[in-house]
# Entry
Amino acid sequence: MMTEPKSTPEKGICSSCGLCSIKEWPMHESIRSCVFKNGWLGGREKKLFERERKLDNPEEMRFGITKERFLAQLKKPMPGAQWSGIITAIAQTAFDSDLVEGVVTLHRSGKNSFFSEPVLAMTPRDIDESKGNKPVLSPVLRSLQDAVRKNLKSILVIGAACHIHTLRDFQERFPYLQQMKVYTVGIPCVDNVHRNRFHWILQRMSKSPETAFHMEFMADFRIHIRHTDGSVEKIPFFSLPEELSNPEIFPKACMACFDYLNSLADITVGYLAAPFRSNEKLQWILVRTEKGGQLLDPIKDRLERYPEKGEWECRDAVLKNAEAIIAAMKEQKASYSSKRKMPVWAGQILAWVLGRKGPKGIGFAHYSVDFHLIRHYYYVKYRYPEQLTLLVPRHVRSIIQEYGLPL
Ligand SMILES: Cc1cc2nc3c(=O)[nH]c(=O)nc-3n(C[C@H](O)[C@H](O)[C@H](O)COP(=O)(O)OP(=O)(O)OC[C@H]3O[C@@H](n4cnc5c(N)ncnc54)[C@H](O)[C@@H]3O)c2cc1C
Ligand code: SF4
Ligand code: SF4
# Structure
């Protein structure tokens, strides 16, 4: 099996966020701000909100500090966007109204629709072309260099949690961006992959990897892969080949990631707590700061808005998997089978049953956040014990204890 591309020893764990590729300042300064050198949340969260998340508030522990949370979709969904296109609408409106002079984001690579190219978007067309998911590690922050060289005074950065953490630290610690007003839109992000592994993984998921152009892990317990002929292939998570459960196929960075919901972004826009209905494109919005409100306000009239739904409780569902996750993180198996964990027909039945009986809406978000925090805690504990104290934010320990699992 392919191995993860080697990081330099000074970089250590690295999600290729793009900051270290910048030539405008020394690389050691970029590395100094890296989230994998400073740890997740903690002091950074306190600086942004003047407090850390409350450990006696179960929702805040999982979803981070927010001013408001709700479900929404654009009344006129944007073709080509990942969901209804709320992020692109926010970016376009911020640009059109001169709130920002440029948008630091990604375009699809011309060579491969799943891969990304960093871009500083400074025209409506460039912003429109940034729509859609690129399910690979992406050097978003590289375009900060262009923004600095153009002497921009205000920018919007759209990124995953590792981008936003590192960006916030860098802006505060070093002088280069301090004259710039920076707004941030965060995507929830988990289980990302390195681009040199992407096709190996896709070949094991899809019957027709060569025609696949879009992929998403959905709340109906299936991976949806869209093909160029318009068909959508739905593979239950439970029927994937066993070799896709090998933690080694994911980047170390993503297995050591503790901020699924991008809690330092001004606003997070995802879909995790939105009930999955095939004819809708409902999204989940978490407004975190005043700047997040400023970004959202101008598009409010374009949104259909709904309260969050679903039962909070998901303890049994999490505990059902916990032992197996802990064992998988502990044992470092030499080989994984290429056989499916269960036949596709059986996986479809299980996905159907869980779709009716399993956690939904806010309960599904609760389940998914806890599942990943538990998996990542034990990944770091068994494979990088020397990094445990630095990387793991304090609420993760509280959640582990809530389930009665060993620290
Ligand atoms: C690897 C990965 C895993 C994700 N997992 C979840 C999840 O589990 N739950 C959830 O709620 N949401 C998840 N998302 C986010 C989700 O797919 C959508 O991006 C989000 O819901 C916004 O939808 P939209 O229609 O408003 O986006 P659009 O208007 O289409 O805009 C999407 C924006 O995200 C940017 N973007 C795309 N890929 C990346 C990337 N790799 N890194 C940084 N920026 C990127 C685009 O350039 C664009 O600016 C994930 C995204 C990625 C990349
Ligand atoms: S994650 Fe970013 S800042 Fe950290 S080492 Fe990698 S490129 Fe540099
Ligand atoms: S999973 Fe975490 S570390 Fe990996 S790309 Fe997403 S935010 Fe960054």
Remarks:
- Residues 16-407 form one domain.
- The chain has a mean pLDDT of 93.
